[in-house]
Amino acid sequence: PIFERVDYQVLSRKEIPFSIATLGGEVTVETLDGPQSMKVEEGTRSGTVVKLRGKGMTRPRGGRGDHLVTIFIEVPQKLDHEQKQLLKKLRDIGL
């Protein structure tokens, strides 16, 4: 249920924290071959698609399609006092 198939491509979604979307980093995504590390570039926006080459469906004549991961930014539902203060500071400086 976490994968969708289009021809030889596999599609999935990955929610990432705001901090990783902003600063960049590594996240783990599920693939057909199991968990894999995926690099998230600094400044990644929600809706960005990251291609994992050769991680899709096997082609009849050899090789594999790609796995396309659509990034979504997690918006926290509850923040503690310190987190709120830090976000307010970011807002106040224009971020």
Describe the structure.
This protein is of the alpha+beta class. The protein is built from two helices and six strands; from the N terminus they run E-E-H-E-E-E-E-H. The protein has a four-stranded mixed β-sheet. A two-stranded antiparallel ribbon has the order 3-4. Strand 1 (about 5) and strand 2 form a beta hairpin. The longest helix is centred in the C-terminal third of the chain and has 12 residues, at about 80-90. The protein is elongated and about 55 Å long.
What is the number of strand segments? Answer: 6
Largest sheet: 4 strands, mixed
Broad structural category:
alpha+beta
Low-confidence stretches: none
Listing every helix as H and every strand as E from the N terminus to the C terminus, the arrangement reads EEHEEEEH
Binned strand content? 35-45%
Shape: elongated
Side by side, the strands of the main sheet go 1-2-6-5
Head-to-tail CA distance between termini: 36 Å
| pLDDT averaged over residues | 94
Task: Tell me roughly what share of residues is in helical segments.
Answer: 10-25%
Estimated radius of gyration: 17 Å
What is the overall number of helices?
2
SSE blueprint and pairings:
Layout: E1 4-6, E2 9-17, H1 18-23, E3 25-31, E4 34-40, E5 49-52, E6 67-74, H2 81-92
Parallel strand pairs: 2-6
Antiparallel strand pairs: 1-2, 3-4, 5-6
Identify the notable features of this structure and list them briefly:
alpha+beta, 2 helices, 40% strand, 19% helix, 95 residues, two-stranded antiparallel ribbon, single chain, 4-stranded mixed β-sheet
